[in-house]
Design brief:
The protein is α+β, with helices and mostly antiparallel strands. It has helices spanning 78-83, 96-101, 103-109, 119-124, 134-161, 218-226, 265-271, 277-300, 349-360, 369-384, 388-400, 404-408, 413-433, 440-451, 454-465; strands at residues 22-26, 29-33, 173-176, 183-184, 188-197, 200-209, 236-240, 254-257, 263-264, 303-305, 313-316, 328-331, 337-339. The strands form four sheets. Strands 3, 4, 5, 6, 7 and 8 form a six-stranded antiparallel beta sheet that branches. Strands 9-11-12 form a three-stranded antiparallel beta sheet.
Length: 466
């Protein structure tokens, strides 16, 4: 730098040198070290008044050791480790220095005969010995896979069937939304209304009998009230007393239903004529599958529907599903439900066969695999008279496999079920990653694969393809 003046006199041999003791502090530890001598520039050009004092003798060399007051970022040397064994940490805690330097000791301190098992091994219930037996591993994977599918099915069922309003109470209020019916079925008119209680609103439908309709059978209506909620059976919320809605276009007391219908199967059949054949036949199979599930519940309760009519089968949008997916079918004609005569397991078989042909149409058969299977099943229904439960199993196999070629070659159905369940889990996972919400078809497929066994699948294929 230009503003500094150079020294006027160079230091000679007799110029005193600066020697100082530098002190280093380390959390209470004071260490004194003598640095090598370094020439110091005097403050003035005048020589010192007295001769310089002789330098003190050098201090003896000391070996400095580092205390454990601060964390150590390097591993301890072998000599120090042997001289002083590492201090064991407290139970449930870990010191800062041992979290870094002690990590290298964790691997050597662990016994190789007892490797740590991950949470996956614990969840599967596998031991070290089981890992050497493929049969045990396959059984554990199959059980865990089936358990996961059942959990998915239960959650989808809760979402699809959830949100049902409870029974009506005297303190509930009602408001009519439309003066004209939203749907006209074969024997009833449905009006949309809202049930109000404090800040809770529920959308319901008033089921008004059509003028001149046949008087409903009281046994069927009592059965409808007593049944537990079912996905494909119309549920009741109570009765709307006379005079509760002065502006209502009906008179008398009417029933309130939890699901507001959008159209009947007969109306859908007219509108769905322009759909592609693959989409149309798949939707028909899904509707027949849901109808078979409803009839299966009736047969289990010792009941039977006197007549299956397309105009009395209602369609509802499933809760929480995309509008482009298949609709939800509701059997609502409980006025024609009678006690089932004993010894008639296939009482609905002939009506289902006729309904199959009505949905497929009287024209040229559709050239799709599902349509071919539905035609074969319709012929089997009138010949074998299977129960609604067996018909539902055959429809499940038609929709999601296995195909007839698998059975003709004698392939093991149990292996097919394991592979099919794995594919469904992967399919649901891929769609979930993409943000797609599972729908009604996914739930029905989960229901099939969680219930199916090798024996039940073989029985379904025999009805479908024999």
């Amino acid at each position: 730098m230009s503003n500094l003046e150079p020294p006027t006199k160079m230091p000679g041999a007799n110029t005193p040198t600066c020697s100082a003791q530098h002190t280093y502090s380390n959390l209470g530890e004071v260490r004194t070290h003598l640095l090598p001598s370094k020439a110091c520039r005097p403050r003035t050009s005048e020589p010192p008044a007295t001769d310089p004092q002789p330098l003190p003798p050098p201090l003896p060399k000391k070996t400095l050791t580092r205390t454990h007051s601060l964390p150590t970022h390097k591993a301890s040397s072998p000599s120090l480790t042997r001289a002083r064994p590492p201090r064991k940490p407290l139970v449930g805690s870990r010191s800062v220095d041992e979290s870094q330097a002690g990590d290298d000791r964790a691997g050597s301190a662990q016994s190789p005969a007892e490797p740590p098992f991950s949470s996956l091994d614990t969840e599967l219930g596998l031991s070290l010995q089981d890992l050497h037996h493929p049969e045990a591993v396959h059984a554990a994977l199959e059980a865990r896979q089936l358990e996961g599918l059942r959990a998915v099915h239960a959650r989808l069922h809760t979402r699809l069937l959830g949100g049902r309003p409870g029974p009506c109470r005297p303190d509930h209020g009602f408001r009519l939304l439309d003066s004209s019916p939203c749907v006209e079925s074969g024997d009833a008119l449905y009006y949309r209304l809202v049930r109000v209680h404090e800040e809770a609103w529920h959308l319901l439908a008033a089921k008004v009998p059509k003028p001149g309709a046949e008087e409903p059978h009281p046994w069927g209506l009592e059965l409808q009230v007593s049944l537990l909620p079912h996905f494909n059976l119309q549920g009741l919320c109570g009765l709307l007393p006379e005079g509760a809605l002065p502006e209502a276009p009906w008179s008398g007391c009417v029933a309130l239903v939890a699901e507001v219908p959008e159209l009947t199967v007969a109306q859908w059949l007219v509108e769905a004529g322009a759909q592609p054949p693959e989409e149309f036949t798949k939707t028909v199979a899904l509707l027949l599958l849901q109808l078979s599930a409803a009839l299966e519940r009736l047969e289990a309760q010792g009941a039977a529907l006197a007549e299956l009519r397309l105009e009395n089968l209602l369609l509802v949008a499933p809760r929480g599903c995309m509008a482009t997916g298949p609709p939800r079918l509701l059997l609502a004609d409980f006025g024609h439900v009678r006690p089932r005569p004993p010894g008639t397991p296939g009482i609905h078989a002939r009506q289902l066969g006729r309904l199959f042909r009505e949905l497929l149409g009287p024209g040229v058969p559709l050239a799709t695999p599902v349509a071919t299977g539905l035609e074969r099943l319709a012929a089997q229904l009138t010949r074998v008279w299977p129960s609604a439960a067996r018909t539902r199993s055959a429809l499940q196999a038609l929709l999601w496999g296995p195909g007839p070629e698998l059975r003709s070659h004698g392939a093991p159905l149990g292996s097919w079920l394991r592979v099919r369940r794995t594919m469904l889990v992967l399919h649901l996972a891929e769609r979930a990653v993409g943000g797609e919400v599972p729908g009604l078809e996914d739930w029905l497929c989960c229901e099939y694969l969680t219930e199916a066994t090798a024996a039940s699948v073989d029985l379904a294929l025999s009805l479908l393809w024999d």
